[in-house]
Design brief:
This protein is mainly β. 13% of the residues lie in helices and 36% in strands. It has one helix and five strands. The chain has one helix at residues 77-88, and strands spanning 3-12, 19-28, 36-45, 62-63, 67-68. Strands 1, 2, 3, 4 and 5 form a five-stranded antiparallel sheet that branches. It starts with a strand and ends in a 6-residue tail after the last helix.
């Protein structure tokens, strides 16, 4: 039975040194198999909103243990592309 797992990691933002949370999803065919179909969900700084997909410089990367993430559709790539596009088109009000 296929199972989907959520991976989260945190590192410092290049702009403000706040926490950048990045996530990915992966699928396992069974409990002892390696993960396949790994997809990056995205990364964003929780302090300033900067989208920094990779850690640069020498910093500490904190990785959290993967957790099972139940979904009706295992890794629907079109959903992530739409979510990313929708977020990019958001405008600031102020």
């Amino acid at each position: 039975m296929k199972r989907q797992y959520l991976h989260l990691s945190v590192h410092a933002c290049d702009k403000c040194k706040g926490p950048v949370v990045s996530g990915s999803l992966a699928v396992r065919e069974n409990e002892i198999s390696k993960e396949t179909d790994i997809r990056q969900i995205g990364a964003v700084c929780l302090s300033c909103g900067h989208r920094q997909s990779t850690m640069t410089g020498s910093g500490i990367l904190r990785q959290f243990p993967p957790i099972e993430w139940e979904s009706v559709n295992l890794i629907d790539a079109s959903h992530f592309a739409t979510a990313t596009t929708d977020r990019a088109s958001d405008t600031e009000v102020g």
